[in-house]
Amino acid sequence: MHKYRKLFLGILFDAIGYVSYLFPGFGEFTDILWAPLSGWLMTKMYKGKAGKVAGVVTFVEEALPGMDFIPTFTIMWIYTFVFNKKETIIEVE
Description:
Elements: H1 3-18, H2 26-45, H3 48-63, H4 72-83
């Protein structure tokens, strides 16, 4: 998946997490459904150990009341594509 597509989807998923603030009381019920789905989506978007850790963090963040304001998908994109760039070393003989 292209990195800017992941960014778009991440912003979309973060926005879906914010929807619970539109419906006080009922919104916390939607978090019960959204928390496991968002954790699963995170592990599908980002493979490996980082994706698994981010999936757990996303699940916990969505499951805890009042924590939905944290844009975990966007933060993971920034971590992956801005701070965690892995350089390729090419040996010249």
